[in-house]
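agent> Task received from the user: take the single chain below, predict its 3D structure, and emit structure tokens. No templates, no multimer pairing.
agent> Plan: (1) validate residues, (2) run structure prediction, (3) serialize to tokens, (4) report one or two observations.
agent> Step 1 OK, no nonstandard residues flagged.
tool_call: predict_structure(input=
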Amino acid sequence: MFSYRRTPELPTREEALTGRAEPLFGLPAVHTVLGNPLAGPYPAHLEVADFGLGCFWGAERKFWQTPGVWSTLAGYQGGFTENPTYEEVCSGGTGHTEVVRVVFDPSLVSYEALLKLFWESHDPTQGFRQGNDVGTQYRSAVYTHSPAAQATAEASREAYQRVLTASGYGTITTAVLPASEHPFWPAEAYHQQYLDKNPGGYCGIGGTGVSCPIGVARAEG
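)
tool_result: status=success, residues=221
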């Protein structure tokens, strides 16, 4: 929940912290709410989506409460540092944002429906912040796992921009990028399903109140 930089600014690859080849911590075997494995490989019929929408504690809960979601995992993505720690990410020195990896059954919940939840659960026009949480680790992002998902996410961003603009909001700052170029690093064990373990814990997730169109962002491929 904290950033050590007064003015948030993304580091370059050369400026970023070095990181390490192996993580400094392990992960629990299963999701405390859904009871399924946290880390892959996942069953072949499932798909994966990665979303950054502010503090991952509340964001993760939004997705695990969604029918059709098989597992969720808090982590870091979009930066340069390998196997970063929470403290390193919050320093602004890694370039990562806090994300939630969502493992879902597409026969039960569509990627479009997850995008709708993503857009409506935060304010994607705020840049390096989300509400009172300020820092590059709170920026909005979608990391996609196929060309079709990339096209769908980009189209949904355009659709939501139109309704946000009509409601008086500014330009969406959400990055939509392929996950293949932006590795996902799991967060520490205590971050996983944090609000299940700490029901009264901090949750900074809040949307604009503007509904996102669904069913207009289809892509082939």
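agent> Step 4: summary for the user.
The first strand starts at residue 47 and ends at 53.
agent> Done.
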